Amino acid sequence: MTGQPDRPQADNQDRPAADEPLPEDAGAESTPSADNGELGVLQAQADENWDKYLRAMAELDNVRKRSQRDVENARKYALEPFARELLNVRDSLEMGLATSAGAEPEPLRQGFEATLKQLATTMEQFGIEVLDPHGEPFDPQQHEAMAMQPSPDVEPGTVLTVYQKGYSLNGRLLRPARVVVSAAVDAD
C-alpha cells in the first residue's frame, strides 16, 4: 500500500468480448482492428491522465507538509528577534550587578537608568507600548481599577494613581494598567 489511490478499472460489462460478433447496428466503419487501435490510444491517454493525477496529488501533499512546517517554525521562532534584543538588556543588568559591590550609589543609579532606557527602546522597537494613564479618564478596556478615592480636585472617573503600568502589543492589550480612580466627594 503506497498511500496512492487504486487505479480505476475500465467497466467491461457492456463491451462485447473479442470473439463475439459486433452488433449489426455498429456499422461498416467499426472493425475489430480499428477498435483495438482506438482502445490503445484511449488507454495511453488514461495512463497519462492517471500519471498526472498522481503527480498532482503528490505535489499537493508536499505543499501541505511544507506549509505545516512553515507555520510550526513561525510559531516556534516568532520571538527570536525580540529575545535577541533582550539579551543585551540582560547583559547590561548582569554587568551592573557585577560592578555594584562597593560602588557609589549615583553611578549605579545612572547605570540602571541606562539599562531601563535600553529596555524601553527594545520594547518600542517591537511594538510594545506603555500605558501610563495618570490624569486620564478611566477606560475599563485599558485600565483595571484597584480602588476608588474621593477627590475634590479632579472630575470623578479620572485616574489618580497608577499602581502598575499597562502594556499593549501593536494595539492589543497585554496587561491593563492597575489604577486608583477618583470618585465624587460626598456632600455632608
From TrEMBL:
Q: Which UniProt keywords apply?
A: Chaperone, Cytoplasm, Stress response
* InterPro entries, per database record: GrpE, GrpE_CC, GrpE_head
Q: Where does the source fall among the domains of life?
A: Bacteria
Gene3D superfamilies from the UniProt entry: 3.90.20.20, Head domain of nucleotide exchange factor GrpE
Which processes are annotated in GO (biological process)? protein folding
Q: Which PROSITE patterns match?
A: GRPE (PS01071)
What Pfam families does this protein's entry cite? GrpE
Return the Basic and acidic residues bias intervals: 8-18
- Location(s), subcellular: Cytoplasm
Looking at the UniProt entry, the stretches that span the membrane are: none
**What molecular functions are annotated in GO for this chain?**
adenyl-nucleotide exchange factor activity; protein homodimerization activity; protein-folding chaperone binding; unfolded protein binding
Extract the ranges annotated as region (Disordered).
1-41
Can you list the GO cellular component terms from the UniProt entry? cytosol
Q: Main role?
A: Participates actively in the response to hyperosmotic and heat shock by preventing the aggregation of stress-denatured proteins, in association with DnaK and GrpE. It is the nucleotide exchange factor for DnaK and may function as a thermosensor. Unfolded proteins bind initially to DnaJ; upon interaction with the DnaJ-bound protein, DnaK hydrolyzes its bound ATP, resulting in the formation of a stable complex. GrpE releases ADP from DnaK; ATP binding to DnaK triggers the release of the substrate protein, thus completing the reaction cycle.
Describe the family membership recorded for this protein in Swiss-Prot or TrEMBL: Belongs to the GrpE family.
Q: How does it assemble?
A: Homodimer.
By what name is this protein known? Protein GrpE
Q: Which organism is it from?
A: Woeseia oceani
Instruction: State which gene encodes it.
Output: grpE
